[in-house]
Amino acid sequence: MRKGLKGWKLVSGLLLLVAAGLPSSQGQTPHDVKRVEIAAKRFSYEPSEITLKRGQRVELVLNSTDATHGFAVQELGIHLVAKEGAHDEVTFTPNKAGEFTGKCNVFCGTGHSSMRITVKVID
Q1: pTM, whole model, 2 decimals?
Q2: CA dist 94 → 14, 54, 91, 123 (Å)
Q3: Which of 46, 80, 108, 122 has its CA 20 to 30 A from that of 35?
Q4: Residue 66 is part of which domain span?
Q5: How many domains in the chain?
């Protein structure tokens, strides 16, 4: 059964690679994707603020070095979880402008509730 799961992961990964190389319906190419890396550590994000442009595809990468951390911005539909020493990522297109607060969505210790990041989406 585990072999079947590995095979499925390989197939889905290949499909994602193929899809990433195709222009979107908005005429964007992979070069139009903005890559943003965020480091999560007890009990903060670095950087503490990011600015995105509405309508521009973003590859958001969450890296963790010391514990399992999450990153969630409910209004933008972002939910990531990165285990210690690993990363999680999502590619999305912000569809509304505003200032949003990202929070750690995985309990990571006594300072967990103070883990915040400001996500600004501009027109």
Answers
A1: 0.73
A2: 25, 5, 10, 10
A3: 108
A4: 33-122
A5: 2
